[in-house]
Amino acid sequence: VVSKSDINQMTAENIAIVFGPNIAWPKGHVNLITVEHSVRLTLILVKHFDEVFVR
């Protein structure tokens, strides 16, 4: 998806914004800061997927 971001507008950052809160939803009180942390974590996973998910 990211490799086609020039066509679909789904950059790594946009994918992290969409999936971050669903992948790493924080426990307890949720606010914009805690959601931002989950987005950052997801962005790292997307950008470094080949290092994180080694075959």
Automatic annotation (TrEMBL):
Q: Which PROSITE patterns match?
A: RHOGAP
Q: Which residues form the Rho-GAP domain?
A: 1-53
Q: Which Pfam families does the record associate with it?
A: RhoGAP (PF00620)
According to its UniProt entry, one GO biological process term is: signal transduction
Q: What is this protein called?
A: Rho-GAP domain-containing protein
